[in-house]
UniProtKB/TrEMBL annotation:
All residue ranges annotated as the Uracil-DNA glycosylase-like domain in the record: 48-227
Domain of life: Bacteria
Pfam family, one: UDG
Protein name listed in UniProt: Uracil-DNA glycosylase-like domain-containing protein
Amino acid sequence: MSTFAERIISFNESLEFTGTLPEGIRIMNPFKESPVALQSSSTFYRKYYDDELPRHLILGINPGRFGSGFTGISFTDPKRLVTNCQIDFPGPMTHEPSSEYIYDMIKAFGGVEEFYQQFYIHSICPLGFTIMGENGKETNYNYYDNKALLKAVYPFIVKNIRTQIAMGFETDVCFCFGTGKNEAFFRKLNEEHHFFKKIVALEHPRYIMQYKSKLKQEYIAKYLQAFSEK
C-alpha cells in the first residue's frame, strides 16, 4: 500500500489544466514547468509524509510565484525549505512573506515534523495564475478575481478537492486560509458538494503579514487554538 508521500507526489505529477483561460491570464504549473520544483517537493513529501498517519487538510487560495511556484510545496519558499526543512534547493532563494508566517507558526506548534504529521497544506485551486501588470511584469492572480476565470476552473477545483480527499485525509473538518472571498467561495462549494462536515476559516498569512504584522503572534495563537480543537 502506498504512503501519503507517494499519493501526493502522484497527484502533483498528474496536475494539468486543459480548459481555456480568459485572455491575458496564464496558468502556473511548477510541476510541469520546473524539474527543480518536482524534485524538491518530492523530497519534502518523502521526508514528512512517508506514512499513513491521520491528517487534516488546510486549503489556501492558489499557489503563488515565489513560494510553491518555485518549490512545489504550499506556503514553503526556498528559504524556508532549506532553513526549516533542511532540504537542498538548487535555485534562487526567493522570499515569500506568507511562508515566513507559516513557518513561524509551525515552530510555535512544535516544529515541522510535529506539524506535518497532522496537517497537509494545499490550495482550493491547486495550480496558480499570473497576469501581466502595468509595469510589464507578471503578478499573482487569484482564481476568484475574475468571474470568467472562476467559471473556467470550477470543474478543475471540484475534481482536485475530491482527488485529495480520496488520498485518505480526514473530512470532519477542513481549515481554510482566507476569511474573505476564499472562505465565501469554499463554504458555498462545500454546501453543494458536501466535502467536509465543517470548515474553519483563518486569516490568510499574506493578509496578516501585509496588514497585521504587528499582531503576528496573536494570529499565531489563534491558529494554534483552532488546530488544537480539530
